[in-house]
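USER:
Before I trust my own judgement here, I would like a peer's view. Write it directly below this note and I will take it from there.

ASSISTANT:
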Amino acid sequence: MDFGQALKELKRGKRLARKGWNGKGIFIKMQKPDKQSFMTHEYIYIDTTGLNSDNEAAPKDRVPWLASQTDMLADDWEVVGNRLTDLFQICSYSGNTAQSVASMNFFTSKVDLIASDRVAFEEEINRVASRLVAEGKLVLY
C-alpha cells in the first residue's frame, strides 16, 4: 500500500511497517494522548523493541518518528500484527499443552490490569514478548 493508505490505517489504530525496512520487528503506530500523557496531540512513533537483528548495538526503543521522502513515496507499506495477537497465536500453536495453559493463565491473570491500566498491560506484554523473541519462541513482524 502507499503512504496515503498507510496513514489511514494508522488512524484506525493499526501498526505498519515497510517491507523494505532492514530487520523484522520494527513498526510505526499512531499514539493518541490520554490523561497520563505529556503530549496533547496525536503523533506517530516507531517501535524497535522487538527488532530481530544480529547487531547487539541496534537500538531497541520507542521514539517519535518522521517519515523520510523515501518512506512517503514507497508502495511497500503493510499492516503488521500486534504483540498481543502474536502471543495468543503462540498459545494456540506452541504444541506444548503445559506451555499453552501457562500462557493462557498469564493472559487471564492480566484481564483486570487491561481494564484498569492499559499502559501497564502493554508494558507487561512487551516484556513477555521480548523474552520470547530472545528465546526464539516468537517472531514478530
